[in-house]
Amino acid sequence: MNTPLTEDHMVKAGRLICIDHGEYSDYSVRGFFVALRDFDPRERLNAFLDEHTDQRERYSFEDDAFIASLISQGLLLEIEYSTIYTGGYSSADEFEFRP
User: What residue ranges of the chain have pLDDT lower than 50?
Assistant: First the structure.
């Protein structure tokens, strides 16, 4: 998805960001982060891929390495979080807090 970046596509300092990955049964939330500085995520991805050209190939992108690069550049701070699961299929029987 290469949508052109406009002002509202920039990550702004102080913003809470959920980084997710995958589709369907492979979908996962990688974590929650706070942006420490304004940045252009597409620009940072392109710079990362310029340094790791092998990851441009399909099935080769290591998103955890990209996230680590954003953290090491001082752009993101990872936030510890917990989950409140409200159940499935409209039933509260499975409600639980997951620290």
Answer: none
Determine, yes or no, domain membership for 15: yes
In a domain, 1, yes or no: no
Cα–Cα dist 67/31, whole Å: 10
Block residue for tokens 């510890």? 80
Domain that holds residue 33: 7-98
Summarize pLDDT for 13-31 with one digit per residue, the tens: 999 999 999 988 889 999 9
DSSP 99: -
Q: What is the token pair recorded at 77?
A: 């701070």
In angstroms, rounded to a whole number, what is the distance separating the alpha carbons of residues 74 and 2? 25
Nearest-Å Rg of the Cα atoms of the chain is 16
Q: In this structure, what is the dihedral angle of CA atoms 40, 44, 50, 51, given to the nearest 10 degrees? A: 160
Q: What value does the mean pLDDT of the chain take?
A: 91
Total domains, the chain: 1
Q: What is the pTM of this model?
A: 0.80
